[in-house]
Write a structure and sequence with these properties.
Belongs to the TRAFAC class myosin-kinesin ATPase superfamily. Myosin family. This is Unconventional myosin-IXb-like. This protein is α+β, with helices and mostly antiparallel strands. The protein has 51 helices and 30 strands. 52% of the residues lie in helices and 11% in strands. A hairpin with a 5-residue loop joins strand 29 and strand 30. 35% of the residues are buried.
Amino acid sequence: MSGSDSDGRSYVLQVYQTLMSQETGRWCTIVVPRETTAAAVIKEAVAVLGADPSRHYVLAEVKECGGEEWVLQPCEQPVLRILLWPLGAQEQHPCSDGYYFLLRECDPDGAVCYRPTSQPCGEKVAAQKLVERGFLPPEREDVDDLCDLPVLTESSILGVLRTRFQRHKIYTYAGSMLVAVNPFTFLPIYNPKYVKMYEKRALGELGPHVFAIADVAYHTMLQRRRNQCVLISGESGSGKTQSTNFLIHCLTALSQKGYTSGIERTILGAGPVLEAFGNAKTAYNNNSSRFGKFIQVNYLESGIVRGAVVEKYLLEKSRLISREKNERNYHVFYYLLVGASEDERKEFKLLRPEEYLYLKQENLDMEDKAVLRHEFERLQQAMGMVGFLPPTKKQIFAMLAAILYLGNVTYKPRGTDRDEGLEVGPPGVLAILSDLLQVRKELLVEALTQRTAVTANDTLIFPYSPSEAVTVRDSMAKSLYSALFDWIVLRINHALLNKKDMEECISFLSIGVLDIFGFEDFKTNSFEQFCINYANEQLQFYFNQHIFKLEQEGYQAEGISWHNIDYMDNVGCIHLFSKKPTGLFYLLDEESNFPHATDKTLLAKLKQQHQGNPYFVPTPVLEPAFVVRHFAGNVKYHVKDFREKNTDHMRADIVTLLRCSDRAYVRQLVGMAPAAAFRWGVLRATVCSLAVLKEAGRQHAEKTTGRPAHSSDGRLKRCYRSLSPQLRHLCYNCAVACAPQNLIDASSLKLIMGLSVHDRTTRALLHLHKGKKPPSISAQFQASLSKLLETLGRAEPFFIRCIRSNADKMEMCFDDSLVLQQLRYTGMLETVRIRRSGYSAKYTFEEFVEQFRVLLPTDASTPQRDIANFFQKMGLAAGTYQIGKTKVFLKEPERQRLQDMRHKRVMDKILYLQRWFRAHLDRKQFLLMRSAAIVIQVRALTSVKVTRWCITLERACDHGVAPVPIRISRATRVPVQWNASLDRKISNPNELRHLDDFLANQVNDLHSKGKHLSAVENIFIRATVEFRENIKTSFFFVNLSSRCCYKDLMMNYQDKVCSLAGQKQKTEVPLVVNLFQSILDGFVRAEIKKEEVEPEKVHSLALASMAVTEHRLDHVLSTYQVNIMQSCDQCTSYIWGMEKAYMCSSCKMVCHKKCLSKINKCCSPYCSKKLAEQGSSQLFGIPVCVLTSEDSTVPVVMAMLLEHVELKGLYTEGIYRKSGAAHRVKELHQRLEKDLRSVCLEEYPIHTVTGLIKQWLRELPEPLMTYTHYSDFLHAIELPEKSEQLKAIYTVLERLPTPSFNTLERLIFHLVRVAKEEAHNRMSPSSLAIIFAPCILRTPDTSDPLTSLKDMGKTTMCLEILLNEQMRLYREKLNELQQLEYAEALVVKQLKLKRQNTVSPGNHGLTVCIKVQNTAPFGQTTFSEDESMDTDSEVEEILVHRIKSIKKEK
């Protein structure tokens, strides 16, 4: 407030307007001088608030602390009243402060009904005192769940929704129900990272979101093995369609788990197609669904999408020909006319939108042409995802163009008499129309201007009047569009059908998402709104049943204490519509079938039958309308065209015309049954194939005989009978191949028609007069709605209440009065009250004992008493649970507490089992060590005896007795200098390649001798061949930081020889080892001399440069097709549907391709280097990304341990099954942490090293097969086919972070080498998978341990499949290498022979004389000496080139 007395200053008044419910609604701010009277304030407030000026008002001063209102006289000055208020209320006085002005309606005499304020100040003061004393929680402006409100009133619910909306939080929970307020703008909260964020999270664990509902519904379906459904309700413009798209997107993302199958793509593509053909712009909504749809997604019990079914309800056909002001026709017409290319415009004869009668309207705004072009491209991509081929798209677009041209057909009487008929024009439109429909122009004109009636003796022709002709034209257009829409839904269902459903009988689960038209109340409400609002009444009844009636009846049946909550029941309104025989639908059908009925007779019958019904409000006599009292308010329906719309079928003449079309697609649209149309197509194709075969046979006969073949009787029947069974089968296959591919077979079509209502609607639409009248539109709608309610009744529901934030489609604008109105008629206050007072968790005694068995006493015999005692021991409050006759009722916080206790108890049990098992292993190890100590003691006693014998022998020598010398064979001696050469370390992978080639030559030399090989040579060759396989596998895994030496290779070779020789040839082992050692020594000396001649070149491992488009700061980025509009996480701009973007498979970050260079944050799941810096460990318990670098793609400690095992332990039995001593493992762990380079692994048993490998993997904060992709790997195992499993596993592996992928690749390769020696180490792929699956593919510690135990079989199978596949690939590569080596040996042998047989002229003093014959016969080539040498050199060059190419390929 500013100003004082009369100095010209102004004062601010806040005036609130009362609603019909006697509560404050809208308000305005008025700036007035001090001397302004109440009459002037009332006049200005009425103008600003938009109130009815014809009514009478008074201005009242409200002081809530006094609990009363003071009505000001027209001459009083409101400013003087303000000056008496507290200082805090004089400046700004909102109604929440208790001081404000109220604009109240009054009688003409000024009488006002006095009432106290709804919330006197005394209650607020008392509530505030209770809060201060701690009896009530403090008032919170923002809560995620409306059930958490301390004071539950309509105003508090509205305030929370408003506050959250202003903070861009459009979702709010009401228990398990979600309230969504439409912001009329896109918010960046729907990217894939949000799907990942809400995955496997309990409802309420994170902020409210539509993805949370989808995730809970999906996992509830899997856990309870029961169908689920999500009902999205709200009035038109509240955002139901968008919520449906988000739900379907999330459900498919949860199912595909990184491996997208065709079904998921089809489901995502079906949405844009249905929206384009079934949605339109209205006054309340720019993308209003003008039909209802129920999408039922079917899943296998493993959670994999099996298929889907789309049901449609009541397409609004009347929109095609007429609309309200500022509304549009269906989207697809504008997409086509604006987005079509020049060739398409010429092909379909397209015009501008304003040139079509069906698109003409006032204020046609086409400023969004760029958006329309983009939507047309998006539509074509979506149609491709659904399975529409380019020819099919053209047929659809041609039909749309024909429907538009139908509206441009005009009529003009030929004369004054009706019998003279009508003149149809313009001629150009008729020509284009006949060309698009492929019908004769004359027949088209006849069908549009006259009606044919067939009697018993004659055919009568009746010309139409101009109004009747227009009605027939419009009916044809509406019926064609409806048939087209039905056909599109049929094709989508066919694409969503799983073909195995027709062959196998597999039980599946489902999640249904209902997106049906919202409650509508326009200025002119017709038959469509009549049906739509009836559907909303049925859904509201379903909501009341589940939220109120069934819930409270369940409490009463269980005998628990409960106070019933009243709610608004709408059964009476439903009976008004559908109760036989006087329901509005049945009365409408009666009048529709009566030939002389009119709109007036219909209205009179309705008023007569329902006079006195509280839900039926009659209107004045002269007004052709009636009012129905719905749950959402009173709606006035105009009866004009009710009867015509209820029996809106295509005329028989029009159907006959279209069935004579030369275009098969048009005939399919008006076909009685799709299956019959398919069979007829197969038959026609079969006849055509026979004709083609006959013509080909005739032409063949003419060519072979040279004379024209005599034609037969021309009957295809004889030709077909003369064919053999094989040719008949070939003809049928050709016919099927030539048949329309859009309908694959009749059996699939019958299955689809049984799952949907397509057969009912299409047959009724195209009904011909065959005795029985077709069902009316209202009857079809009731039947489909009943089927929907049956489906919903078999499922567990989730509810999403969509709220329209304002009536003007303004972005982020919250209209309190409109929102409050929606909250009231949806019963939100009662819903929140029962959700807060009720019990969300319900278990039968058996279910409770099954789930929480670990918490209950082991000797539990009487569940009811034991559960009650258990709750008392837990100290649960009495109001948080109740135990009924057969069930246990819990509040949601208590259920979460029980689950946490169960998790902790199971973890304790697991730790106990682990401690017991480790103690058992230690006890076993102790017994082994004790027995070994006894053996050592025995050996020590024996050594004492030997010492005594040596002393005796020495004394004998002293007395002159010479000992017998012991001779050692030369073959078993090992020169001392050899050991020195074998200490050389391998620092270059090329040395291993050279060694492999050197050993290959040695083996080839032994083979080439051609004589019988000795036992030593046989063992040498076998051991060398297998040893070379180990060398080949080490080419790419030589870690420069560990650097193994040739002595390690020598020991590995000795183990190989021992395993091959066995006990029978044990004596040959030293000979073979010494032979190999001498060969290896020669190779090492040659390498040393080579280095002395040529200085060592520094070799570095060149890593493949990672493309920016794939990896950036640990992000694993891959292309991603956006299905719903999202936002770029880098530039925050939009990513439109069907565009290509890049998504990180780990953190689910999404960005444009152009924004890849802007990424400056590491991938969140792997950005944990700070953790490594804070901890004391340097090697263990550290993320893999910290331990790797560009120089070492695999952690050094891991590479060193694996190389040691591969060199020293591949032939050790139970290498990973047996555990090393715990103290030795701990000792090695500490030494590696202290100084990795100084540790000598040979000092430790091999089982100690293998145990440390498993410990290193277990202590990783993020396993190699990461937490993020854990569920993806499980999903891959659940796929039915093995090929699909492998494909899915490798798809997920490609999305792992680069450090994890490289380390996992090295580990898998190591395990393959271990499994390859299964004959010696007894470690099969299955046993290795059992051991390593918990190490590299494990669940987070926070997950349910019972779930981890259940998933153990899947994780083991995943790793086993991977190992088996890699072993198969490993063997294939080795076989290829052996083939290449064999080819190389052959070429080398040829080269040696060639060089041996080629003698130089000056070699050994010999001369080669080659005479040149001058008398050579013609055509015979002679060579001189130079030419012969050139030929030999060319052959030698070819052989050398082949050797080089083979080496390169190796």
